[in-house]
Automatic annotation (TrEMBL):
Entry similarity comment: Belongs to the cytochrome P450 family.
SUPFAM superfamilies referenced in this protein's UniProt entry, alphabetically: Cytochrome P450
Protein name: Ecdysone 20-monooxygenase
Molecular function terms, GO-annotated: heme binding; iron ion binding; monooxygenase activity; oxidoreductase activity, acting on paired donors, with incorporation or reduction of molecular oxygen
Lineage: Eukaryota, Metazoa, Ecdysozoa, Arthropoda, Hexapoda
Superkingdom, taxonomy of origin: Eukaryota
Membrane listed as a keyword: yes
PANTHER family the record matches: CYTOCHROME P450
Binding-site residues, heme: 467
The keyword Kinase appears for this protein: no
């Protein structure tokens, strides 16, 4: 018993001695190493400064399902109002939010200007935009039609190869210059269509449908090099099918992305709808391409260059050429239609702005003349009105990226591979970034002091993955706005309603178009 006590005491003493020696060695090492190497060892408090993705605030997350429950029926937000959900979440949680997709994969949303700029500036050779998983999944299941998931959804070297081969003709200023007379004609036909669509009170109901037809006709004309009659009084069955399938494609993508992604396990209704719309789109575009191919052999006009350049691209499978045309048409219709409605709505709500556009364009291009490149170059106020509409109501209000390297923000460390949504649209409404941010004031863009803000006012995205349709859309918006303001006094009663269908989309828009008395 005495012996046991003795050994216990010896053991205790040894422990105390070892602890003291360890502390002493630590102290000496810290002092010596600190003195001679100049390396600063962070204190425990300093080490804790960095927080991880898991610390970012956001809605409560469920195992496996993550935070997608917030869009379920009777829960916090509506699936067709995702834009309002983000507004509310930024108010609740601050400038950085964590959501979780299926299997608890984090998705980080940010609206801080500095963060947005750093992410967009860091992009390397192959910037990664998270693919639309529904489209990618479907296309992989149809090797008979697709060799890859397409320009919009591919990554890395395959994306770079598609981008290099498919976009130069579309983005070339020469193509856009050559297309100018055609856009003048398209704008005249659009004016004619909406003029005839007015009721006795000069109201055009569901104006967005006409703008989508304009998006469809002009994108098809640019890409396929011929007119399709989507602006004729009677809309053809093909136009209706094409417009419907693009709408249901966006809607189904939205449900499959933000809703419960059960489609990964079983073919849900949303997935089946998506497949049906993708099939319809494929069949319609195939018909159009085939008929355009026959015409192509009989004609040799210049406007066909985008189509011809795609068809003549060497080392590209025919399936890729058809897929590219589908992607261009699908990418162009609703984006262009929505943007046109938002622009005209803002102009309608600001008669003083409208008057200034009218005066500028009447001075530059008198009645009866076409709008030329020189007119547009001089129409600085008209262009400012378009930039300001992109700032205030962009149809694509956020840019998605996968981080290529680590980023630190507000004491959080986000590792490479993190999925981030950059909410440029909401950042544009922040008073810290723009004075009088929620007002439509085109004049701000005429002020030399206003920063151009290419990372905030970025309706077409940014960097190497930027929208290849930008130049064409710029041209079209300018000519359509100029010609509409010349012909009509545009008015709108009440507030424009919007929904989110993967894009910010106008609904039930009734415009009043009074003939201008010159
Ligand atoms: C107002 C009309 C349009 C808007 C607002 C718009 C917006 C955008 C945005 C935000 C992106 C993503 C860019 C990024 O991640 O940095 C994009 C990509 C794309 N857009 Fe557009 N777009 C429009 C019209 C068009 C048109 C007319 C076409 C084709 C003729 C087109 C074809 C594409 C393609 C192919 C991509 C994918 C590019 C890539 O990943 O390399 N877009 N667009």
């Amino acid at each position: 018993m005495v012996q046991k006590n003795f050994w216990t005491k010896i053991g205790g003493a040894c422990c105390i001695v070892v602890a003291c020696i360890t502390a002493l060695v630590k102290l000496v090492l810290k002092y010596v190493v600190g003195t001679y190497s100049n390396v600063e060892y962070p204190s425990e408090a300093q080490q804790k400064i960095y927080k991880t993705i898991a610390d970012i605030p956001g809605p409560r997350s469920l195992p496996v399902f993550g935070t997608r429950w917030i869009y379920w029926k009777f829960c916090l937000y509506k699936l067709n109002a995702v834009h309002l959900a983000y507004e509310d979440m930024f108010n609740r949680y601050g400038d950085i939010i964590r959501e979780e997709a299926l299997w608890n994969i984090p998705v980080i949303s940010v609206k801080n200007r500095d963060f947005i700029e750093r992410v967009l500036r860091q992009s390397g050779k192959y910037p990664i935009r998270p693919p639309n998983e529904v489209t990618a999944n479907y296309r992989k299941s149809r090797p008979d039609r697709y060799t890859n998931t397409g320009l919009v959804n591919e990554q890395g070297e395959v994306w770079a190869m598609l981008r290099n081969k498919l976009t130069p003709e579309l983005t070339s200023p020469r193509t856009i210059r050559r297309f100018l007379p055609e856009v003048n004609q398209l704008a005249d036909d659009f004016n004619n269509l909406i003029s005839l669509a007015r009721d006795g009170n000069n109201v055009v109901k569901e104006f967005e449908a006409y703008c989508n037809r304009m998006g469809l006709e002009s994108t098809c004309t640019l890409i396929l090099g011929r007119r399709f009659g989507f602006l004729d009084g009677e809309i053809s069955e093909t136009a209706t099918r094409l417009a419907d399938s693009v709408t249901s494609q966006f809607r189904a993508s939205q449900e499959a992305f933000y809703g419960l992604p059960l489609w990964k396990l079983i073919p849900t209704k949303a997935y089946k709808d998506f497949v049906a719309s993708e099939d319809a789109l494929y069949n319609i575009v195939s018909e159009i391409v085939d008929s355009a191919l026959i015409d192509e052999q009989q004609s040799c006009t210049d406007v066909r260059s985008v189509f011809v350049s795609i068809l003549q691209t060497s080392e590209l499978d025919n399936r890729d050429k058809k897929a590219a045309i589908i992607d261009y048409i699908a990418a162009g219709i609703k984006t262009l239609g929505n943007t046109l409605v938002f622009l005209l709505y803002l102009v309608a709500k600001h008669p003083e702005v409208q008057e200034k556009i009218y005066n500028e364009i009447s001075r530059l291009a008198p009645a009866g003349t076409s709008v030329t490149a020189e007119h547009l170059h001089k129409a600085t106020y008209l262009r400012a009105c378009i930039t300001e509409a992109h700032r205030l109501k962009p149809t694509a209000p956020c840019i998605a990226r996968v981080l290529e390297s680590e980023i630190e923000y507000d004491n959080y460390r986000l590792p490479p591979g993190s999925v981030v949504l950059l909410h440029t649209g909401l950042a544009c409404l922040d008073e810290n970034n723009f004075k009088d941010a929620t007002s439509y004031r085109p004049e701000r863009w005429l002020d030399e002091l206003t920063k151009k803000s290419p990372f905030l006012v970025a309706p077409f995205g940014c960097g190497k993955r930027m929208c290849p349709g930008k130049r064409f859309v710029d041209l079209e918006l300018q000519i359509v706005l100029a010609k509409m303001v010349k012909q009509f006094e545009i008015d709108f009663e009440g507030q424009l309603k919007t929904e989110f269908e993967f894009l910010l989309t106008p609904v039930d828009s009734n415009f009043i178009l009074r003939d201008r008395i010159c």
